[in-house]
Specification:
Keywords: Dioxygenase, Iron, Metal-binding, Oxidoreductase. The chain has a single domain, classed as Jelly Rolls (Sandwich). Helices cover 16% and strands 19% of the residues. The longest helix has 17 residues. The protein contains five helices and twelve strands. The strands form two sheets. Strands 1, 2, 3, 4, 6, 9, 11 and 12 form an eight-stranded antiparallel sheet that branches. It is globular and about 55 Å long. By secondary structure, the chain is an alpha+beta fold. Bound molecules: 2-oxoglutaric acid (AKG). 2-oxoglutaric acid binds next to strand 10 and strand 11. The site of 2-oxoglutaric acid has 10 residues, from strand 10 and strand 11.
């Protein structure tokens, strides 16, 4: 569903001003949005998965390990598809606290695409270079939204999400490097337009929730603090928006309608979108690519 049709539907959670801000800027921050009771359940579930990761020696389809990971001190970049590893995550992602919020920006019929939990363990965990998300999971239109939840909050020194305000209205940039690797990073020569006064760093207390348009240019700095910065990142779309490719982070829940009803017709946006590699051959997470050199325009590193 395109934005002008979304606007015809009544709001559930957001004010009109908040929805307008999201459409204008390509992101929205809701301080302390997720209720404490949910945060407690999410923390318990996360702690169970962190415990399970103690037995993992090498990154796999679920756990992406950080340098220094050990059975004594689990250090994770990411838990892929946490909703398939612990029921609390799926309960949360399908609860109105999330689906009503998604409906406010994608329309009343909401489809789940994928999710990940970026743990960013701390003491120097890598960040993310400037990138756009939609080329990794292109859809027939640009309705997909990532709803990020900072489970424990996020300070400036913990590698917050950093966005280029309004960049969702601009072009999509290539996510391939000069050698044809899909590195999910904009090449330095494509970033000349990015000025400091366009950049917002998204911090907040526990439960602070961040909506990101699927085209917005964003990244994040390393987490230099001693504490981890868990960020839960489910992605939803309008029910009438269809993925062109399999998801890089697969789940049996991909395509589930989590609010409202399934669509009989697809919505199309004619703006072009670069296609990712064939993920059936395996997905190489961003950390598997070489670190950038000092000449790159960095948020992420
Ligand atoms: O976890 C982060 O700091 C950034 C995540 C991100 O940009 C992404 O997953 O697209």
């Amino acid at each position: 569903m395109k934005a002008h049709d979304v606007l015809k539907h009544p709001l559930n959670v957001l004010t009109r001003e908040q929805r307008d801000l999201f459409l204008q800027n390509g992101f929205l921050v809701l301080p302390d949005y997720v209720p404490q009771a949910w945060l407690t359940r999410l923390r318990d579930a996360m702690s169970t998965l962190l415990d399970r990761s103690r037995a993992v020696r090498e990154s796999d389809a679920i756990y992406v390990l950080e340098e220094g990971h050990s059975p004594q001190t689990p250090r994770l970049h990411r838990i892929s598809s946490p909703q398939d590893q612990h029921p609390v995550f799926w309960d949360f992602m399908t609860d109105p606290v999330m689906t009503d919020l998604a409906a406010d920006v994608v329309g009343p019929d909401v489809k789940f695409h994928h999710a990940k939990l970026n743990v960013k363990s701390g003491k120097g965990s890598q960040g993310f270079g400037w990138h756009q998300d939609i080329p990794a999971w292109p859809h027939t239109d640009f309705s997909p939204v990532t709803i990020g939840v900072y489970i424990d909050g996020c300070r400036d020194d913990q590698g917050p999400l950093t966005v280029a305000r309004g960049s969702h209205e601009g072009p999509l940039f290539s996510m391939y490097d000069g050698e044809g690797n899909f590195v999910v990073k904009i090449r330095p020569q494509d970033l000349g337009w990015l000025k400091d006064d366009m950049i917002d760093s998204l911090t907040g207390g526990p439960g602070t929730t961040v909506l990101l348009n699927c085209r917005i240019v964003h990244g994040s700095a390393p987490n230099r603090a001693p504490e981890a910065r868990p960020l839960l990142l489910p992605v939803y779309s309008s029910a009438d928006s269809f993925a062109y490719t399999p998801s890089p982070i697969p789940s049996p829940h991909q395509g589930d309608i989590v609010r409202g009803k399934a669509a009989r017709f697809a919505s199309f946006d004619t703006r072009p979108v670069e296609m990712p590699p064939d993920w059936r051959g395996g997905y190489k997470p961003v950390w598997a690519h070489k670190k950038p050199d000092a000449t790159e325009r960095a948020v992420g590193y």
